[in-house]
Every structure is written in structure tokens, then in C-alpha cells.
Amino acid sequence: MKNNIPDNWKSVLQKDLDRPYFQELLQFIQTEYKEYTCYPPVSSIFSAFKYCSFNETKVVIIGQDPYHNMGQANGLCFSVKDGIKHPPSLVNIFKEIENDLNIPYPESGNLEKWAKQGVLLLNATLTVREHRPGSHQNKGWEKFTDSVIMKLSEEKSDIIFMLWGGFAKKKAKLIDARKHHILTSGHPSPLSANRGYWFGNKHFSNCNKILTEIGNKSVVW
């Protein structure tokens, strides 16, 4: 399973990959996938790193858990496989992009095209048991993904971190705000969005404005 992590990320995260907690995490995941239906597929667990290399990361979006229903999760936070009905949070993300950038609502909810442009779509927990949200939390994933955030903060500059909702906002303490850009808002889930905490945040246009100002290529959302 560890072999699915691309070499460019392995070199940065090697200390964590060698630590006992990560070995215990992998053992737990192997047992879970053997005994239960879990998501995403094993080959997609590290897709966030596969499609967005460490060197090319310029935007980070942080989710919490993979989708836990059949056929949804593809290893990228908020993303679903082609042909899958868009979950409510993703619907609201696309609605905000539509309003913010005047871009037509897309047919596919697969966000690989974002990842390939340098957007790291990172869930804090990379796996989940079917129909059991949060079932793989507090097993080691959070320690691993916190290390990912800290490494990006320490070794790079001018990354735009988009922190949506209370859970993601807590990750701000891992980021050096003196050399990175942190955009915060409510979560795109209906509960938060319908209370006025999501729509109108203009994160997508603001992100591209920052990228342009620092001489980087804007993202085609």
C-alpha cells in the first residue's frame, strides 16, 4: 500500500512513513479492507498525492473524511468518480464557482482536473468503512496528514490554503501565515451554506487573484 505513495512525496514524508504509528495504521487499514467494505479503493487511497506532486502544490483544500457510500470516493476530498451523483457539499462548491466566476455548472464531479493543476485535495482521514462516517478517525491518518500540511508550510512558500468549516480551520495552527495565504469560510455542506456561511466567499476568484499576483498560473476551476 505504501508503494502507492509517489516518490516525490515519499522523500518528503519518509520519517513519518518509517514511524511505528504509520506501520500500525497500515496494519489497521489492511485488516479493515479485508474484513469490511471500505472506501476509496486501495489503489486510490493516496490519489491526492498521485495527481498533485509536492513540488507543484500551490493550493491546498482540506476535507475531513472520504465519502462512505458505494462508488463515490476517489481519493480526492469533495470529489466523486465520473458519472456519480454530486453530493450536497460538492453541489454547493460548484454553485459558488458558478456565481463567483460565471462558469457553467459541470457535468462531472471528478476533481482530478483541479489536482493536476497543483490543487492538493487532502482529506484528514484517507479511508472510511462503508456507511460508517468517521470510522477510521483517530487511527493515525490525522497525524500523517498533519505532517503533510506542516511539511508544505515549512518547505514551500505562497501556498493558498482554503480552510472550509470548523474542522479545517483548526489546521491553521500548522501553517506559517507569514509566508502562506489562508482563506477561511464556512463549510459547503447544506447546514452551513444555508445559514449564509458559504455562498459568496469568493474563494475561487480570490485564489486566482493571489496566484496571478505572485506570478503563478491561475487554476481553471
From TrEMBL:
| Swiss-Prot/TrEMBL GO biological process terms | base-excision repair, AP site formation via deaminated base removal
Main location, first listed in the record: cytoplasm
Q: What does this protein do?
A: Excises uracil residues from the DNA which can arise as a result of misincorporation of dUMP residues by DNA polymerase or due to deamination of cytosine.
Active site annotation, chain numbering: D65
The family note in this entry says: Belongs to the uracil-DNA glycosylase (UDG) superfamily. UNG family.
Q: Write out the entry's keywords from A to Z.
A: Cytoplasm, DNA damage, DNA repair, Hydrolase
Provide the Uracil-DNA glycosylase-like domain boundaries: 50-211
Instruction: Give a yes or no for keyword DNA repair in this entry.
Output: yes
Record's protein name: Uracil-DNA glycosylase
Q: Does the keyword Transferase apply?
A: no
One GO cellular component this record assigns the protein to is: cytoplasm
Per its UniProt record, what Pfam families does this chain match?
UDG
Record-linked InterPro entries: UDG_fam1, Ura-DNA_Glyclase_AS, Uracil-DNA_glycosylase-like, Uracil-DNA_glycosylase-like_sf
Query: What GO molecular functions are on record for this protein?
Result: uracil DNA N-glycosylase activity
According to UniProt, the reaction catalysed is: Hydrolyzes single-stranded DNA or mismatched double-stranded DNA and polynucleotides, releasing free uracil
What's the gene? Answer: ung
EC number(s) reported in the record: 3.2.2.27
Cross-referenced HAMAP family, in alphabetical order? UDG (MF_00148)
Kindly list the places in or outside the cell where this protein is found, as annotated in its UniProt entry: Cytoplasm
